[in-house]
C-alpha cells in the first residue's frame, strides 16, 4: 500500500485565509525578489519589510542564506537541489500566504523554470515577481560575500552568473534597476507598486 493513501489533509476543516485576512486587515501576497548575487535583493527586502511594518503590515522575510542554514541545510547547488530548494520555499511561502502574512522572498532563483514552479505552487494571482536588475560587473565589484572571487578561482562550482546561467524574467511584475536607484528609492518604488495589492478592500 502506498503511503500516499494514508494521507488525509484537513485543509477544509481549518480556518481559511479569508478569516486571517479579516483579522490582520491586509491581503497577503508573496513578493519574490530575483536577481544576481550582489544585486541588492536582501538589502532591499530588509528595507521593504521595515517600510511595511511602519505602515502596519505583518510580514515575513525568507532569505536565501537563512533558508539554507535551516530548512534546506541538506541541499546542495546541483540543478536538482536548486529546484527542490525553490519548491520548499514556495510551499513555506504558501503557508504564510494562507495565514495572510505578506512574504518577502529574496532568492537568486536563476531560471525561468524554477520561478515558474514557485508561481504554480503559490498561485499566479498571489505571486509578485520583482526583478532586481543589476549588471554582472557591478555585482562582481560589490562582491560583499567574496563569492564571485571564489567562483573565478574555481572554488565554487555552478555559481550563477559565472559558471551557471541566470535567465532574466521575461515579464516581471516590476523591474528595479538597483545600479541606478538608491536602496531607499528601490524600496519606495516597490512599496508604491504593491500597496494597492496588499491593502484589504
Summarize the topology.
Layout: H1 17-24, E1 30-34, H2 41-54, E2 59-63, H3 64-69, H4 79-98, E3 102-106, H5 112-122, E4 127-133, H6 136-142, H7 147-152, E5 174-177, H8 183-198
Parallel strand pairs: 1-3, 1-4, 2-3, 4-5
Helix pairs in contact: 2-8, 4-5
How is this structure best described in words?
With 201 residues, the chain is of the alpha/beta class. It has one domain (3-198): P-loop containing nucleotide triphosphate hydrolases (Rossmann fold, 3-Layer(aba) Sandwich). It has 8 helices and 5 strands; from the N terminus they run αβαβααβαβααβα.
What labels would you give this structure?
8 helices; 44% helix; 5-stranded parallel sheet; alpha/beta; globular; Rossmann fold
Q: How would you summarize this macromolecular structure in one to three sentences?
A:
With 201 residues, the protein is of the alpha/beta class.
- CATH topology description: Rossmann fold
Principal-axis shape equals: globular
CATH architectural designation: 3-Layer(aba) Sandwich
What is the rounded distance between the termini? 47 Å
Low-confidence stretches: none
Strand order of the largest sheet: 2-3-1-4-5
Give, in order, the helices and strands: HEHEHHEHEHHEH
Number of H/I helices: 8
Q: Beta fraction of the residues?
A: 5-15%
Mean pLDDT over the residues: 90
Structural class: alpha/beta
In the CATH scheme, the class would be Alpha Beta
The largest β sheet comes out as: 5 strands, parallel
Number of domains: 1
Number of strands: 5
Radius of gyration based on Cα positions: 18 Å
Amino acid at each position: 500500500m502506498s503511503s500516499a493513501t494514508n494521507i488525509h489533509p484537513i485543509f477544509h476543516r481549518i480556518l481559511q485565509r479569508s478569516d486571517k485576512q479579516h483579522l490582520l486587515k491586509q491581503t497577503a501576497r508573496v513578493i519574490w525578489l530575483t536577481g544576481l548575487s550582489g544585486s541588492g535583493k536582501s538589502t532591499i527586502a530588509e528595507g521593504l519589510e521595515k517600510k511595511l511594518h511602519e505602515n502596519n503590515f505583518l510580514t515575513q522575510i525568507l532569505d536565501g542564506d537563512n533558508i539554507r542554514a535551516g530548512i534546506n541545510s541538506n541541499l546542495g547547488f546541483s540543478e536538482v537541489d536548486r529546484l527542490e530548494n525553490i519548491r520548499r520555499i514556495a510551499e513555506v511561502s504558501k503557508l504564510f500566504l494562507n495565514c495572510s502574512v505578506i512574504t518577502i522572498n529574496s532568492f537568486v532563483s536563476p531560471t525561468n523554470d524554477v520561478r515558474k514552479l514557485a508561481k504554480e505552487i503559490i498561485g499566479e494571482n498571489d505571486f509578485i515577481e520583482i526583478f532586481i536588475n543589476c549588471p554582472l560587473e557591478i555585482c562582481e565589484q560589490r562582491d560583499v560575500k567574496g563569492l564571485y572571487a571564489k567562483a573565478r578561482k574555481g572554488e565554487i562550482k555552478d555559481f550563477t552568473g559565472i559558471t551557471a546561467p541566470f535567465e532574466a524574467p521575461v515579464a516581471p511584475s516590476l523591474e528595479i534597476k538597483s545600479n541606478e536607484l538608491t536602496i531607499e528609492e528601490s524600496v519606495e518604488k516597490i512599496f508604491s507598486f504593491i500597496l494597492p495589492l496588499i491593502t484589504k478592500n
